[in-house]
Amino acid sequence: MNGFIDLIKPPGMSSGGAVAFAKWLTGEKVGHAGTLDPEASGVLPIMVGRATRLLNFFSEKEKTYIAEIAFTGATDTQDAQGQITEEGKGKPDRESFLRVIHSMVGEIDQCPPAYSALKRGGTPLYKLARQGVEIKTEARKTMIYAIDLLDETEEGYLIRVQCGGGTYIRTLCHDIGKKLGMPAHMKFLLRTQVGMFMIEQAVTMEELEEAKQNGTLESKMLPMDAPLEHLPRIDVDVKYEKQVRNGVALPAKWLGAEGIEGPVRIYLKNELLGIARNVDGNMKFHVILQSQEQ
Asked: What is the pLDDT of residues 207-226, one digit of tens each?
């Protein structure tokens, strides 16, 4: 069983817990793409079987979130699970809020939160923070493509954020509050997109369990090439079958791949065989996905 599951992770479950569930479900090696905080919900791409080898190749840079920013105060975790560090005194007016969120579109500097899965010396920062260790993180660049105001809530505003990979939405909410001079935190978070993985096509854990019981689990999975369509495709002639199944590099001109830079998808008999690159005129495999056929 090889492919991807477009999973809707429920709130209260860690990304690691979702991986453990998928491993139990499929009996295969499993990984995830794009950590989602335990209290957040939404799209979590799950890689199953040989698809775990493709993490470095599929496009998952753009992500979309729906978040509620609350102005009841700032917290040490920058979300609703943390301790209040500064009390809020009301929320900003709509015009001021719009002005600030629009000013944060584009490339911005963002300091990852102390309570995050980033590691220092092999230990996640959130574990160090819980031990009382003072955590200071360095600012790094992240891309905000758009921030749209969706609605006004009792404690703040509901927004949709389109951003690049590595963006912390709770830190964005915290920084919006700082710009307004009004302490804030992220109260709610739903991820609706990770690259080509969309919440409209995603499946719940309950749907997957039912499919397993019915023997239709694979019908809930996406094929291994689903998130790779941005890569050029090369179909290999069957006369080279033995070589490519053994991972032998072939001259790029034999495959019509001259002048192609970067990774390409290699197909044999309409099956994705692996990912290769043009190295000094030869197509060399970086990942082989199909086992050798006798």
From this structure: 999 999 999 999 999 999 99
pLDDT digits (tens, 9 = 90+) for 68-123: 999 999 998 899 988 999 999 899 999 999 999 999 999 999 987 765 555 555 56
Q: Which of 6, 37, 175, 225 is catalytic?
A: 37
Q: Specify the residue for token string 């921030």.
A: 147
Closest CA to 47 of 195, 155, 186: 195
- Distance CA(228)–CA(224), nearest Å, equals 8
d(CA 71, CA 94): 13
Sign of CA pseudo-dihedral 256, 257, 258, 260: positive
Farthest CA pair distance, the chain: 73
- Say whether 37 is catalytic: yes
Cα(71)–Cα(115) distance, integer angstroms: 20
**Would you call 98 helix, strand, or coil by DSSP?**
helix
> What predicted TM-score, i.e. pTM, was given to this entire model?
0.87
Q: What share of the chain is helix, strand, coil (3-state, %, to 5)?
A: 25, 35, 40
Residue 115, pLDDT score:
58
223, amino acid identity: P
Task: Answer for the pair 100, 195: CB distance below 8 angstroms, yes or no.
Answer: no
